[in-house]
Amino acid sequence: MAARLLVVALLSVALGMAAHAGEPPLPAGLAPAPAPEKEEPALPAGLAPVAPASAAEPELPAGLGPAAPTPSEEPALPVGLDAAPGEAPPPEDDREKLRLRDRLPPLHGFWEARGGVRTQRDPAARVAATMAETRVQLKSEYAWKQLVAEATADAYLDGVVFDESGIDVRQARLTWTATRHLDFRIGRQILTWGTGDLLFINDMFPKDWNSFFIGRDVEYLKAPSNAIKAGLYFDLLNFEVVYTPLFEPDRMITGDRISFWNPMFKRYDGRRRELDYAAPNGWFKDHEIALRAYRSFGKYEAALYSYTGFWKSPGGQRLTPFMQARFPRLNVYGASLRGPIGKGMANVELGYFDSRQNRAGDNMLINNSEFRFLAGYERELMKDFTGGVQYYVEVMMHYDKYKRNLPFWVTPKDPARHVLTARLTKLMLNQNLILSMFTYFSPSDLDAYLRPNVQYKINDHWTVEGGANVFLGASKTTFFGQFQRNTNIYAGARYSF
User: pLDDT at position 90, please?
Assistant: First the structure.
C-alpha cells in the first residue's frame, strides 16, 4: 500500500513539471508529426490545396479542361451532316454546298386552284366560265446590313384567257436604309395610300379590276408598279415620294373576260369587240409622280397628297383611230384623317381631280374635273364580329357644259354619284372560319355590287374559299348595272408553304 502511494506521489510531481514545460502530451497515435521551424500547421486531410506547378495556370477540374486540338484538323460538322459510322466523310465540295444552302434566304409561297362561272348567259362572252386557273407564288427576302432584297412572283395557267398565262412578277425591289431619316425602295412593288376600304381617292397606283370582279384573292386588286420610292422621316413631318418613270395604267375591264356597256355605240362589248385603247408609253416622258406628307397627332394620323400623271382607267376617246380610248393628263390634290372615335376607327378623305386637258369642261371627249369625298367608320359589334360603313361621292365640275356638249344618243351621267358601302365580318371555329359580306349600293344610280365570301382554314397549310360577285342595277348604263350579265360564283383551294 505504501509503495502504491509512493508511485502516485512521484507521478503527480512529474505531471506538475511537465505543465511548467509545455502542453500536456496527447495519447499515442493522436500526436501530430513535428513541423519544421516557422512552418504553418498542416490542414486536415482533404482540405489542403494542391501545390501549383511553377509558372503554370491552376489546373481545371476534370471535364472542364479544353481538349488539345489536333493540328490541321477541321471542326466537327453538326449532327446529321457528318458521315455515318463506317462511311467516308463527304467531299469538301459537298460540305461547301451544305454551308451555302444554310446561307440561302428562306422561300415561302403557295399553290392554289380557282374556278368561277357566270350564273346567267352573257351573249357578249365567249364562254360561261369567268375563271379557271392554277398558280404558284414564290416569295423570298434577304437582308444584309442596310439593304433588304424582296422578290415575289406568280406562275399561272389561265384556262379562260389562255394568252394571259405566264409569269407575273409582283415584287422585285431593293430597300436601302441610308440613314434613320432616309430610305429608298427601288424596283417592282405594290403601293397603296389612302384610308378607304375598297374605295380609292388619293391612291393613284394601278388596280386590277378583272381580278376583283371574278373572285381572285383581294390582294390581287392591287397591281404592281415599276417605281422608285423615297421616304424622309422627321419629328415635324414625314414624306414619301414615288416616281414611276413609265405610266402604269389600271388592269381595266376590256371585254376579254368581263363584258361592259359601251355608251358611245350603245351596245355590250366583250370578246368579239374588246376595248381599243392606247396608253402613254414614253419612258421618263410619260411618267408619274406621287407625294404624301403625313404626321401623327396623338392617336390620329393626317396626310396631304399630290399626284401628277394620267387618268388610271380610260378618261376619254380619240377621234382617230375612231373612238379609241385614251388616258388624258391628270393632277390630284387631296387630304385624309384617320383615328379612333368611341369604340371604333373613323376616317375621312377628299381629293380634287384636275383634268388638265379639259379644265373648262367643254370637251366631250375628255372627262371633266371632279371632287371626291369619303367618310367611314368601323368597330367591333360583338366578339369576333366587326362592321364598317362608308359614304362616298363624286361630284362633276362644269356639269352644265358636259351635258350641253354630250352627243344626243349618249345617256348623261348624274351630276353627283353617291355610293354607300357596308362590311360585315364574322370569325368562328377559333377564327378558322371567316364569313364576310361587302356591299356597294348607289342611291343615285340605283345599282349595287355584293361580295359574299366564306373562307375556312383546314390546317396550317390548307385553306378553302368560296364566294360570289353579284351585280344589280335598274339600268345598263350605270357603273355596276352594266356588269349584270357577269354575276358569278367561284371556289378555290390554297396550299401554303
Answer: 59
